[in-house]
Amino acid sequence: MTEIKHETVKDVMSEKLIMIDGLTTISNALGIMRKNETSSLVINRRNDSDEYGLLTARDIAKEVVVPDKEPERISAYQVMQKPVLSIRANMNVRYAIRLLLKFDVFRALIIEDDVAIGLVTLEDMLLRYTEIK
Questions:
Q1: What is the reported pLDDT for 94?
Q2: Are strands 107-112 and 86-88 parallel, antiparallel or unpaired?
């Protein structure tokens, strides 16, 4: 009988987490995305009782580009997803895949000790999970 390795989302996540303030304009957010070669930015919490937000290229396309709004006049908080689906860092990849599918989302924020430490995508988890089986 072969032993199945149980990896956690922390083993699969991307640690490249770009954080911005919710008041950042979409124009500036796009510049940050280009500079860092990423398609998503995490919106910082305003205080300890607040939640993280997530701004993706898809959100910008849907909420700014398609309706032909001016990116320099729209703030990240007006477009972002909040609250964003978050997963404990030590969750098994198999269960994290199920969770993302249940909520029909492509990516989730990874939380450890109440702090965002990374992002994970369904694709990354699926490829890793099928590799270790």
A1: 93
A2: parallel
